[in-house]
Write a structure and sequence with these properties.
Blueprint lengths: L5 E4 H6 L1 H6 L6 E5 L2 E6 L2 H28 L6 H10 L4
Parallel strand pairs: 1-2
Antiparallel strand pairs: 2-3
Length: 91
Amino acid sequence: MQTVPQIVPITEMAQKQSEVLSRLAHGPIVLAQHSRAAAVLVSVAEWDKLINQLTHYEHLLMLEEESKRVARGEYLTQEQVEAGLRERGLL
């Protein structure tokens, strides 16, 4: 993915949808309205990648928090662990 964002006026998006959408292969597009960033377009593949990364980092954070609890001598029963996983949608 490129580091410098592609900036496209919203009016261009309205007039040249196919052309603008084809540029998503080169990275996200910042839609500008009145010379200000208004929205960001990303490809479905990029969106899925970002969501997967976010989920991965959330899991890592959860594991780190639980590891700290264990290090402090705080333990959970199997039922408590399973309930916590269900709340997070992981079970």
